[in-house]
Each structure stands twice: as C-alpha cells, then as structure tokens.
Design a protein that fits this description.
The chain is built from nine helices and eleven strands. With 229 residues, the protein is of the alpha/beta class. The protein folds into two domains: 137 residues, Periplasmic binding protein-like II (D-Maltodextrin-Binding Protein, domain 2); 88 residues, Periplasmic binding protein-like II (D-Maltodextrin-Binding Protein, domain 2, 3-Layer(aba) Sandwich). It has a six-stranded mixed sheet with strand order 2-3-1-4-11-5, sandwiched between helices. Strands 8-7-9-6-10 form a five-stranded mixed sheet. Helix 6 links the parallel strand 7 and strand 8. Helix 2 packs across helix 9. The structure holds adenosine-5'-triphosphate and 1-O-pyrophosphono-5-O-phosphono-alpha-D-ribofuranose. 1-O-pyrophosphono-5-O-phosphono-alpha-D-ribofuranose (PRP) binds next to strand 9 and helix 7. It is found in: Cytoplasm. Its EC number is 2.4.2.17. Pfam families: HisG.
Length: 229
C-alpha cells in the first residue's frame, strides 16, 4: 500500500509518457497498472472519449493510448519514454533503441506458421525453396524462412489472415495463435511455432540514461508486480 502511494521522483518538468496498446492487451494491463500504483484519469476508461493522452494520479506520468504496433514506434523514436508491447511486435521492428527489461506475463500466445489441413498432411518442408505467406509480420517471416534457405514472399495483411489460403491469396500464413479456435474455424492447422509471445515493458534507451532515476523506479515497480503475479 505504501508503495502504491509513492510518487515518482521527477527530474524534469516534462511528464514521462507511458504508451499503452488499446485492444486486448489493455484489458490484461489495466489491473497490472493498478497494482503498480498508476491510476489514469476517468476519460481513459471511457470508450467513447476521443482523447488520446491522459493524466494519471502520478504528477510526473501521462499515458497515451495507441495501436499495439505503434507503441514500439512511439517509444523507439522517443515520443514516449516507455510502453507495453508484445514481443511479436518487438521482433518485427527489431528497434535497437528499445530496451525490454520486464516480461509482464500477459498477452500469452505464439507466432506460428499455419496451412490448410489437406496441404499440411502431404507437405514436405524440406523441398521448399520459395513460398508465399500472408502475414502481419513480414520481417519475422522472411528472417525465419531465410535462416533455412527458403525465400518467403510475404503479402502484408492487417487482420483476418486465416481467410487468405481459402481464397487463393497464398497457401500458408504466419499469425498469432492462442486457443487455436480461429485456425480450427477456418480449417487450418499449425505447422510450426516461430516464437512464444508475451507482452513486455519497453523503455527508450536514451531516455533510460537521461531520466534514469524516474524510469528505473517505474521499471522496478512493474517488475515487482509481474514477479508477484
Ligand atoms: N489471441 C491472442 N491471445 C493473446 N494475445 C494475443 C492474441 N492476439 C494478439 N495478442 C497479443 O496482443 C497484441 C495485440 O493484438 P492485435 O494485434 O490483435 O491487436 P488488437 O488487440 O486487435 O488491437 P489493434 O489491432 O487495434 O492494435 C499482439 O501484438 C500480441 O502480442
Ligand atoms: O488462437 P485464437 O485464440 O483463436 O487467437 C488467435 C487470433 O487472435 C488474433 O486475432 P484478433 O482476435 O486480435 O483479431 P485481428 O488480428 O483480426 O485484429 C490473431 O490474429 C488470431 O486471429
């Protein structure tokens, strides 16, 4: 309780900015932020509000709410000092400016290659030299297949990848899988796992040097809460 009421040791007039993803991760992140002692202003929980930047109970900390992929970009370019992003997104951008010190143990899923059931049953991956893949993750996909000498031609989609094989866009997809129900509902099967995914606390490396006291304090608070979960 004492921890929760601790204020930030602010070393600059400028508020620190925490970028959080809207959507599914926010549902898991909100109780974690409460345990860290961060209470956003009321408009943050109002789905109809058009506001994107919010004050918190901590005078030196504001929150911005952005698309999950954009969290990494805001933090990498220093527009936000820290944020929360899945390691799927961190792997896709591979920004050297990002430091990801805490696994928050939320947003569990995996990034996998999937194919129609009938194809997977007769497929021989050792014979592939070129494949076409629909995905939201073209960089991870290219790197993954290039590592074993396969050229992956990626078609970038932003959602509903599971439709692509059935409609002749490609034969394989790379997408996130959690329960597997989206794959099953579209008659696809997982062929291989590329990476296990959870969400991480990410910090801009330059900001971590220039505002180390405040940022280390926040990182430690998130670490304590994640470790206690
Ligand atoms: N089915 C899932 N189960 C658990 N975690 C998931 C799942 N799908 C995605 N995630 C995690 O949540 C993050 C955001 O998911 P997604 O890209 O689907 O965004 P969203 O919640 O639909 O919001 P938006 O597309 O508007 O940013 C992903 O980067 C991943 O880390
Ligand atoms: O294995 P499952 O439990 O079915 O979860 C996997 C689905 O979850 C994610 O989609 P999301 O619901 O976020 O939709 P979107 O990618 O179309 O935004 C992912 O892209 C899969 O489609």
């Amino acid at each position: 309780m004492e921890d929760k009421q601790r204020s930030l040791s602010v070393t600059s007039n400028e508020a620190l900015i925490l970028a959080v993803p809207k959507g599914r991760i926010l549902k898991e992140l909100s109780p974690l932020m409460t345990r860290v002692g961060i209470e956003p202003e009321a408009a943050f929980s109002d789905d109809n509000a058009r506001q994107l930047r919010f004050k918190t109970n901590l005078p030196g900390l504001d929150i911005i709410r952005v698309r999950s992929f954009d969290v990494a970009t805001f933090v990498a370019f220093g527009a936000a000092h820290l944020g929360v992003a899945g390691n799927d997104i961190l792997m896709e951008f591979d920004y050297p400016e990002l430091y990801a010190p805490v696994d928050l143990d939320i947003g569990h899923c995996r990034l996998s290659v999937a194919a129609p059931r009938h194809l997977a049953e007769s497929d021989d991956p050792s014979r592939w030299s070129h494949i076409r893949v629909a995905t939201k993750y073209p960089e991870i996909t290219r790197r993954h297949f290039a590592a074993r000498g396969v050229q992956a031609e990626c078609i970038k989609l932003n959602g509903a990848m599971e439709l692509a094989p059935g409609l002749g866009l490609c034969r394989r997809i790379v997408d996130l899988v959690s329960t597997g129900s989206t794959l099953r509902a579209n008659d696809l099967v997982e062929v291989e796992t590329i990476a296990e995914v959870t969400s991480r606390l990410v910090v801009n490396r330059a900001a971590f040097k220039t505002r180390s006291e405040e940022l280390s304090d926040l990182v430690e608070r998130f670490r304590e809460v994640a470790d206690a979960a």
